[in-house]
Amino acid sequence: MLNHVEVSRLLDILGNRNRRRIIELLRQKPCFVTEISDRLIISPKAVIDHLGLMEREALISSFLDERRRKYYYLSQEFDIVVSMRKNGSEMRVAGLPSADLRLIESLSMLRRMARARESILDTLENLEHDIEATMNDIIRMSRGVCEGDLDLDIIITLSHQDLTFGELVEVMERDPEAVNISLGRLGSRGIVTKEGERYRIAGMYGAVQT
Question: Which CATH number belongs to the domain containing residue 164 in this structure?
Answer without folding.
Answer: 1.10.10.10
